[in-house]
Design brief:
The chain is 41% helix and 11% strand. The chain is an alpha/beta fold. α4 links the parallel β2 and β3.
Length: 291
């Protein structure tokens, strides 16, 4: 690459974090079956220090400038320690419907995190629920972006009733100063995500993961065609590159970098516009240096 890369969608997983997420034997059985269905490889979990060393080595190997690591919980102690390294950026997460959510967000941002990730499908809430508005007010005051996972999820206990990005429309309208980033191109709700991005200029997409949701659409479409349509509607200024890299031994998903670079080249996207997608847009949103 002739330009720096910021990966805008990654996940931190350590052994101590996994212990907090311990589930019942029945839940684990269900989740294993889901992982097999989606052909997700197994993983090894390590203490924080070793995990950080592994990610540093991967970033050096593939020349990744910085990575944004997302969490599923507020006050994630491992993440707060992890982001003391300037290569690693962290987003906190909360259930925005609970009373103390705004205070938790503010505390984590002041502790060094740079944004917020919301999981309406996994947590089972409507993003347009007025109980969420104090969190949006806090995010707007702090000047932080919000990444959201709509659409399909490998989580067995997810609820697709809350998966339509259209639900975000009144929120994006009421909070025009917040940048809302839809993960995985809306993860199956591409049509709705494009409608929303047309209505609201503060809607961005991230390009992360293998984007296997394409396989479950009732019509044939390729990732190249997804990029072509999104570039036409949003332009290169509102796309955020990501891989959804998350665990070892798989490590950094550089095959996604290669695939998406080939697609952009085939669409004759200029290098200065590719530089925006692969790093400059996220650097601008987070007000961080792009080395």
């Amino acid at each position: 690459m002739s330009f720096p890369i910021i990966d805008g969608h990654m996940h931190l997983a350590t052994d101590s974090m996994a212990k907090k997420w311990a589930r019942s034997e029945q839940e684990e059985s269900i989740i294993r079956k889901r992982r097999e269905h989606f052909k997700i490889p197994g993983y090894e979990l390590y203490p924080l220090q070793k995990t950080a060393e592994l990610w540093k080595a991967e970033f050096d190997k593939y020349n990744i400038s910085k990575g944004v690591f997302l969490t599923y919980e507020p006050h994630n102690e491992d993440l707060l320690s992890f982001v003391k390294d300037s290569q690693f950026i962290g987003f906190t997460s909360v259930d925005p419907t609970i009373e103390h959510a705004p205070a938790m967000v503010e505390e984590d941002i002041k502790a060094g995190l740079k944004g917020l990730k919301l999981y309406p499908v996994n947590r089972g809430f409507s993003v347009s629920d007025k109980r969420c508005y104090p969190v949006y007010e806090t995010a707007q005051t702090l000047g932080i972006p919000i990444t959201l996972h709509f659409g399909v999820s490998i989580g067995y206990f997810s609820d697709l009733r809350y998966g339509n990005p259209i639900d975000l429309h009144p929120v994006a309208r009421d909070f025009p100063d917040i940048t809302f980033i839809l993960a995985h191109f809306g993860c199956g709700f591409l049509r709705e995500s494009l409608f929303l991005s047309y209505q609201c200029q503060n809607i961005y997409f991230d390009t992360s993961s293998s984007n296997r949701w394409i396989e479950y659409l009732p019509y044939e479409i390729t990732l190249r065609e997804v990029f072509k349509k999104c570039l036409k509607v949003l332009g290169p200024d509102r796309l955020i590159f990501g891989t959804d890299s998350n665990f070892f031994p798989r490590g950094y998903r550089y095959n996604i970098v290669e695939e998406q670079k080939l697609i952009l080249d085939s669409l004759q996207v200029k290098e200065k516009e590719q530089a925006k997608i692969f790093g400059e847009n996220m650097a601008r949103l987070l007000n961080v240096r792009l080395d």
